[in-house]
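Note to self: keep these together.
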Amino acid sequence: MTTITCSPGKLNTHLIWQRIDPPTFEAAKNVAMKQILIGVLSSFLVFSCQNNTRSVENIRIKGSDTEVNVALALAETFMEKEPNVSIAVTGGGSGTGIAALLSGKTHIANASRPMKPEELQSARTSGIHPLAVIFGIDALAVIVHQNNPLDTLTINDLGKIFTGEKSSWAELGGPDKEISLYGRQSNSGTFLYFREEILGADYATSLKQMNGTAQIVEAIGTDPAGIGYVGIGYLSEKGGQLPSNIKVLKISEKAGSPAFSPLVPAAILSRQYPIVRPLYQYVNGAPSGRLLEFLLYSIGAEGQKIVSENGYYPISQEQFSENLRLLNATLTVNGAQ
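Structure:
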């Protein structure tokens, strides 16, 4: 008796022998026919197994929690088009992703900030050549509990709040409650960006450092005195509704200047909203093969549509052209705005 099993890249044929009495002519003929059929079937299965065995290319993406949801969406749609590609996406923060790229443990490091000088120096020491592809634009939203009566803050107000110089909402025209600060951990690109671009100093020691952006949103939804900062994409829910109990503040450059909301696309694209930053995909040197195809997909027309659907904003024509120059590539369809 012969049993045949097929698995990727392998054909298993198991022969099971049984003692039988000397066959009659008719029985011998039947046995011979069965052996012929088994031989034909075995050949067919070998052919089928060989043709169904495909070389799958694995791509690892690690880093920014701000980018993790949009990266997952891009990976899923790309894999639908390219079934021979497997893309694994994990978060952990921009610093974690960059460290993984420098140690050769990821193909793409997602980062919501530029690489720091010490990271670039470490890359040179390790023989790594970081190449930064900008694939989206993020507006950093400042959120409070929906019962907070304030609707607007200035950049200067934010600096004084998060450094601890102002510790009560009463100092800003709000209720007499101590301000409760929420932010990310120090390995987060958002943590560093907000500290360097908005505060210009260290955070107050009272800052609650949360593991992820989702935790900030959840915490402020239950804390009437809370304030925090999150990527705008994390505030998008089905139907365009904000998470429950959350208010997004308008921000102005200085007192007396117009204040703008990150929920208004025109304010982002025109750069009137003052807290805007690019989203990066870092790779080691000029990519090729499926990795290059995925990066081009991310900045192309379909990829940019997915970026927008996830609450972020498309790259500019200038950024698109610079990406192509860095990648030494061309696209027949320009998805930039």
